[in-house]
Amino acid sequence: MKKTLLAIALVGLFAAQGAFANDETAELRRIIEQQQKVLQELEKRLDETEKRVERTADVIEESASESTTKSATTIGGYGELHYNNITDNQSGDDKKAIDFHRFVLFFGYEFTEKTRFFSEVEIEHALSGDDKPGEVELEQAYIEHDFNDTFTGKAGLFLIPAGIINETHEPPTFYGVERNPVEKNIIPATWWEAGAALNVKAAPGLAIDGSITSGLKVDDTYSIRGGRQKVAKADASDLAYTARVKYTAVNGLELAATAQYQADLTQSAAGVETASATLLSAHAIYSIKGFTLKALYAQWDIDGKEAELLGRDEQNGWYFEPAYRFNENIGVFARYNEYDNNAGNSDDTKIEQTNVGINYWLHEDVVFKADYEKVGGAKDADGFNLGVGYQF
């Protein structure tokens, strides 16, 4: 731009000199000097303008960089409201209740492309405190780091890699109002511990997880679900060791198996016999077009005389769930469950539960649910459940 202005000015000067070559006057010289001063001032202002443009560009770039840093913080969550209308045909102790079962918030931060933080805070049953039904729980809080493309480690409080719903349990991701009873009572989801874990991407579609964490602490009833310490001043006299293999190399197929060992499920509690315990679980998920089939098996083997006398040295369960999603809004399912927390008992203590129902997704992250429930075997109950859930 500066060169263009100078050229125009010079052309003007030459034209003026040619026109008045024979009669140069002091007035002409004065005009030419004034034009030169104007050109010099114009050049100065152009230089200043260019500098201001450069400074503005630097500010914009810096602002964009700050914006990128702020976006490293993530907030999410999920929640679910349930209505249960279940009639107990044995005891007459019916369950007719409405409950905001879970309200959960996620908070995460990405320090770098390789290092990140994730946390999950939950309020159960809407209200907590003395004589209140709910709890406020910290379900996850860990640092995760990618050492390279193969190895990823994490340390803190995290979900145990076992079963299907323990790590993925947001309401829009599964069928049925309530989570399935096998994973709830046998695995037992939702189950988290504190420690360190390593994920190895051994091959495309093949991952291996290993962790050393705090473990369960059962009392003299040997209730697996009751043994979750939830990392609240948890007794860590005996740690738990968990390994999982997951295969997803075939499109639409997921196969996984988990094993966990704990040397003493009682955490060396006084007055309770030492009891080592092993959890084994395996599941398969296959999806093709709108059809999905899920199957899972889990079992605990507890080595101890007290557990054996109670019939709780063996605890196991399995379920089978076919489902079909007609479109992005509507899906139907059926699920058959069998589980027994007293499988070592000579009496028939097995519980059978069948659920059939429908999911309606108002949005991919908002779902309404309804199912019919029939419980048989060691229990006799039936009824229906309604629910609404979301995630973001």
Please give a quick description of this structure:
The protein has 392 residues and is of the alpha+beta class. It is 19% helix and 47% strand.
Distinctive features:
Porin, 19% helix, 392 residues, alpha+beta, Porin_dom_sf
Structural shape: elongated
Number of helices: 4
What name is given to the CATH topology of the largest domain?
A: Porin
Share of residues in strands = over 45%
Protein name: Porin
Coiled coil: 25-66
Signal peptide: 1-21
Pfam family, one: Porin_O_P
Q: What do you see in this structure?
A:
The radius of gyration is 34 Å and the shape is elongated. The model is unreliable at 2-11 (pLDDT under 50). The protein is an alpha+beta fold and 392 residues long. It folds into two domains: 2-63; 82-391, Porin (Beta Barrel), CATH 2.40.160. A 16-stranded antiparallel β-barrel has the order 1-2-3-4-5-6-7-8-9-10-11-12-13-14-15-16. It has helices at residues 2-19, 26-70, 181-185, 305-310, and strands spanning 73-88, 95-110, 115-124, 135-146, 151-159, 192-203, 206-213, 240-247, 253-262, 276-288, 291-303, 314-325, 330-340, 351-363, 366-377, 381-391. Strand 10 and strand 11 (291-303) form a beta hairpin.
